[in-house]
Amino acid sequence: MDGTIATTVGINQAGTGGVLLPDAVLDKLYQSYALKQKRVAFACYLIASILFDVWAIAVPQGQSLESIIVTSVFLTINIVLAIVLRFCGRGRFRGVIWEIAPHLAWLLAIKQLFLQLFLKGSVTPRDSLGWAVLLNFLVYVTLPVLLKYTGILLGLGSFATYVNAIIGLAKKENYFWEQQVANILLLIAATLIGLLCYFLAEAKQRRAFLEAKQGLEVKMLIEEQSAEQERLLLSVLPEHVAVKMRQDLGSTNSEQFKKIYMSRHENVR
Length: 269
Known about the structure:
nucleotide-binding, transmembrane helix, lyase, Adenylate cyclase N-terminal domain-containing protein
């Protein structure tokens, strides 16, 4: 990111003599920076998915053999995805891998949530509610996707999938609709908390990004001024004298400033 900013700043310096970044370029650079920062949090999402799979297999809760097999398949896929990101996420195809991985991980979680409810013999209005609430929170906090488009769609997809699955599969027992209202309120609360965490993290990242940008702009401005001073120095002094002067001025020895640079020329007409 720093190299891209420095290159853009250099182009703007050459064209306008100032240090400016166009808003479109700055926004694109920030989005790329923010997505890269959230890649670290994506590991938490995969760990949560793996732990949920282990819990769904190990803890007896009336699950059928088909449900255990399906969960084992999803557990294997999540582990493979984590290994691929660990060893190939910085390789040649890292751009494509990181473009696909968040959407694939979310799709796996949604498919698993629906299949576990579908394969369970008797579904209650509270089944898998904890995982659905956590999933709605993690979508906004850990997935390296843009909130403006994909993030909102994934969050709404998680919300709608669980609510529709429970309404369609659960038995209409007493207080069924009251439980649905409670489920929806919990999911909305998880979504709001996730959005709050997202915006707080984004504000912090944007501030750090702008500070880095300002530091690079100052650095480029100083380098430009230094180059201009060097051109002025070479215009009035011979090159070997100018080089020696720069060396002496850069020295920490205060005695160097007492030197007088003179050249003696004889038989000059």
